[in-house]
């Protein structure tokens, strides 16, 4: 468990993009992410004004991509906060362990793809912000 990670450790990663008159194609292969992904899921049909996330992970890393539409990712490291707008399907946000995240401002039709470094483990989640602040001390 690394709790000394800060928002300075966040990364925007550009995915390879093959442009073609028939449409573009992007690929996520073995060396693009700094972890082997073990779980893939996506968020869609998020109602206007709804928020997702609202937690941190003790060990899990995630890579988020706006496959369609846009949304904001509000990130907090226990001291500082930043917001990253995702709206390009060939650029994603790498969120390391120990970062609180909230997903907001979903556009109509937005789809958020998430690649995670591990399977779902409830014990890896910190779902209370005050507990998160304690974890970061």
TrEMBL record:
Residues annotated as domain Sugar 3,4-ketoisomerase QdtA cupin: 9-136
Residues spanning the membrane: none
Domain of life from the UniProt record: Bacteria
Pfam family, one: FdtA
InterPro entries: QdtA_cupin_dom (IPR008894), RmlC-like_jellyroll (IPR014710), RmlC_Cupin_sf (IPR011051)
Descriptive protein name: WxcM-like domain-containing protein
């Amino acid at each position: 468990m690394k709790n000394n990670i800060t928002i300075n450790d966040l990364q925007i990663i550009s995915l390879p993009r093959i442009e073609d008159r028939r449409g573009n194609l992007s690929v996520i292969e073995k060396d693009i992410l700094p972890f082997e992904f073990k779980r893939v899921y996506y968020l869609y049909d998020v109602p206007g004004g709804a928020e997702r996330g609202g937690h941190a992970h003790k060990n899990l890393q995630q890579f988020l991509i706006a496959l369609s539409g846009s949304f904001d990712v509000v990130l907090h490291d226990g001291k500082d906060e930043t917001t990253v707008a995702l709206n390009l399907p060939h650029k994603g946000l790498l969120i390391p362990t120990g970062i609180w995240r909230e997903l907001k401002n979903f556009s109509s039709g937005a789809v958020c793809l998430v690649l995670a470094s591990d399977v779902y483990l409830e014990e890896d989640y910190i779902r209370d912000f005050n507990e998160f602040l304690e974890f970061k001390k």
